[in-house]
Amino acid sequence: MRNYDEEIARKQTEVEAKKDEMAHIHTVFMQRLALFFNKLYAEKAKKLVTDNAEKSYEVGEDNLKLLKQDVQLLIERSHELISEHLDKEELWWHQRENSKTYRHINEHRIPDFLEEQLRLVYGELGKVFEKHKIITIREHSDTRTHTGVMSDFGRKNGKIRYAYSFDLSEDVLQALNIYSEEHRKATVIISQIEELKREKAVTQIGDVWDSL
Q1: Rounded Cα distance, 14 and 193, in Å
Q2: Considering only CA atoms, which of 157, 129, 159 is closest in space to residue 145?
Q3: Residue-wise pLDDT tens digits, 117-149
Q4: What is the Cα–Cα distance from 156 to 29, expressed in whole angstroms?
Q5: I need a labelling partner for 92 at 20 to 30 A (CA). Which of 7, 62, 135, 186 fits?
Q6: How far apart are CA 116 and CA 34, in angstroms?
């Protein structure tokens, strides 16, 4: 006689093993993101200074030195900031099962619910530059600066975020794709568990009928 409970238990063990694999991949993804933002913060900081050269000269060399120190502190805190914005159990299936999909939309973009958090991580750089009066950050409904140039940062629901989609490095996307594939496999196993439960219920009620 078929033992549905044993089959279901084995499948559930497989799901837990997938979650363990996904937890490891999640860690790798976060580490790669930290390295990515280390480089991004440094490169974007210099570009913001040069793109706003008049304002940068106006604040003076001493203030620019303080700005650069704050940028360096931001770089050193990149892993902490990524954890703050992205290490939320509602975002990750292995922490809390959800109906999300994790495949990126095209070659460079990732799902919107993750991209929004990354825009907030990027927005941390905007906070630093606004603090030192190099840029002014407005609501997203008014993203043009006083010169008519589009601002790279804006406020949404009171939070500073990068205003646009931006490309991630290949190694970051690769980690997310691996996570996505393990997620797909796990959901297939869960579908198999649900089918086993249905078959078990049919068999049990059939046995009840036969015993009457």
Answers
A1: 10
A2: 129
A3: 999 999 999 999 999 999 999 886 544 444 434
A4: 26
A5: 7
A6: 16
